[in-house]
Design brief:
Elements lengths: L3 E4 L3 H13 L3 E7 L6 H5 L2 E6 L10 H11 L3 E3 L9 H9 L3 E2 L4 H8 L1 H10 L7 E2 L6 H11 L3 E5 L8 E4 L5 H16 L4 E5 L5 E9 L5 E13 L2 E7 L6 H18 L3 E10 L2 E8 L6 H8 L3 H9 L16 E8 L11 E2 L2 E3 L6 E5 L6 E2 L6 E9 L2 H14 L1 E3 L5 H7 L3 H5 L6 H12 L1
Parallel strand pairs: 1-2, 1-4, 2-3, 4-5
Antiparallel strand pairs: 6-9, 7-8, 7-9, 10-11, 10-13, 11-12, 12-15, 13-14, 15-20, 16-19, 17-21, 18-20
Bound molecules: adenosine-5'-diphosphate (ADP).
The site of adenosine-5'-diphosphate (ADP) has 20 residues, from strand 9, strand 13 and strand 14.
């Protein structure tokens, strides 16, 4: 097993990884920027190394600084968390080249899945249904336009190197295509330094359903069922639940078997998530995330599996500690993302937390990086915590979520807590009847009412 681990991240995910490492008896090394000197992950770790100024480009994104920190602190392995360098194949390779253990998939898998066109081709070859569309190298605007016409509108233009919803444009009619293409390419060039795009059929009212997977060095693969992340704003997840209220037992079996076959076919190592759009019983692959996801706790709550423990074990060369047959899920779990944001305008609200109280009780988990007196720096994303609840069924989970949202106190900054309190009064949310566009439409209606 690994004896010491550097966590190349900050915030709630750094704290979350440290918790599992501590319970496994692994020595933890945190890293921090100027702005994070007083951060919780720094206080929790056995040791902390300063890596640079506050901006991420001068600290959390500087691969050499992270590797040097690991060397100096005598850490054997690096866990990247999510975001930052977690899906950077060059960094993963540099970690391995430095003789350290990389708690993640093979750099080649990260690279293959990092480009949406390559990933779709790989998955289609492995027998996974993908969204119909154009993945060609011919990027001339007239060719792209002809392909969009052939697919039929509405279509979605997506940056091949895309992520976080950037470089993505929906086109409803042929007349709008050229302008949308120019804008998607501009955005993609600015964000990713790569303006290539692919064209996809726009799925009108899908749910976002993703499957948690594992592969070990012995070729064994296991999936841990699905998460439903259909409640989104600007293609960003807001609330996640498991199991999906939309999937039948038969659909769940089908998607799980398809995914296991694909993971085995690509020889995937470690923890990953395969994301699908699901509509009327059909599912289409959209992308694979080659890292731990923000919403992984809902899977942990229904399966009882510690995903970080499994990640570290696989990285250490150990076999998966369970087989597919060992994995059952129980009850229902829901996660809400607590962001330091205005709950109506979603504008960031950095500042000092004047008061903090974490809710407790059966089936309630709060993964956060805050404490009373903590100042949220303006340099990083606004996620400050996640409230996750588990119940014997969806109804009980919702009741527990409502109760916990009433109990949690985060004073001094605006948060998304009031948003969830309002959402949990909506019949569609209570019945589980929502697709990926539901939240945007609801938000627009709220504005109209005001
Ligand atoms: P990113 O990597 O930028 O997050 P994804 O390909 O994962 O992009 O898509 C993000 C979100 O965009 C999905 O969860 C879904 O809400 C929406 N989306 C993606 N592809 C389609 C499509 N073909 N039709 C409709 N919506 C889509």
């Amino acid at each position: 097993m690994i004896g010491s681990l550097l966590i190349a991240n900050r915030g709630e995910i750094a704290c979350r990884v440290i918790r599992t490492a501590q319970r496994l008896g692994i020595r933890t090394v945190a890293v921090y920027s100027d702005a994070d000197a007083d951060a919780l992950h720094v206080r929790m770790a056995d040791e902390a190394v300063h890596i640079g100024p506050s901006p991420v480009r001068e600290s959390y994104l500087v691969g050499e600084a992270l590797i040097a920190a690991a060397r100096n602190a005598g850490a054997e392995a690096i866990h990247p968390g999510y975001g930052f360098l977690s899906e950077n194949a060059d960094f993963a390779q540099a970690v391995l080249d430095a003789g350290l253990v990389w708690v993640g998939p093979k750099p080649a898998s990260i690279r293959a899945m990092g480009l949406k066109d390559a990933a779709k081709k790989l998955m289609a070859d492995a027998g996974v249904p993908v969204t119909p569309g154009y993945l060609g190298d011919d990027q001339r605007p007239e060719r792209l336009k002809a392909e969009a016409d052939a697919i039929g509108y509405p279509v979605l233009i997506k940056a091949v190197a895309g992520g976080g919803g950037k470089g993505m444009k929906r086109v409803d009619a042929a007349a709008d295509f050229d302008a949308a293409l120019a804008s998607a390419k501009r955005e993609a060039a600015a964000a990713f330094g790569d303006d290539r795009v692919l064209i996809e059929k726009y799925v009108t009212r899908p749910r976002h359903i993703e499957v948690q997977v594992f592969g070990d060095q012995f070729g064994d693969v296991v999936h841990l069922f699905e998460r439903d992340c259909s409640l989104q704003r600007r293609h960003q997840k807001v609330l996640e639940e498991a199991p999906s209220p939309a999937l039948s037992a038969e659909g769940r079996k089908k998607i799980g078997e398809t995914v296991n076959k694909a993971i085995a076919a690509i020889g995937y190592l470690g923890v990953g998530t395969i994301e699908f759009l699901w509509e009327d019983g059909e599912f289409f692959f959209i992308e694979m995330n080659t890292r731990l996801q923000v919403e992984h706790p809902v899977t942990e709550m229904i399966t009882g599996v510690d995903l970080v423990r499994e990640q570290v074990r696989i990285a250490a060369g150990l076999p998966l500690s369970f087989t597919q047959e060992d994995i059952k899920f129980q009850g229902h779990a829901i996660e809400v993302r607590i962001n330091a944001e205005n709950s109506e305008t979603f504008t960031p609200s950095p500042g000092t937390i004047s008061d903090f109280h974490a809710p407790g009780g059966l089936g309630v988990r709060l993964d956060s990086a805050i404490y009373a007196g903590y100042s949220i720096p303006p340099y990083y994303d606004s996620l400050i915590g996640k409230l996750i609840v588990h119940g014997r069924d969806r109804e009980e989970a919702i009741a527990r979520l409502k109760r916990s949202l009433n109990e949690v106190v985060v004073g001094g900054v605006d948060t998304t807590i009031p948003l969830f309190q309002r959402l949990l009064a909506e019949p569609d949310i209570l019945s589980g009847d929502y697709d990926i566009h539901w939240l945007e439409k609801w938000a627009a209606r709220q504005k109209g009412d005001a």
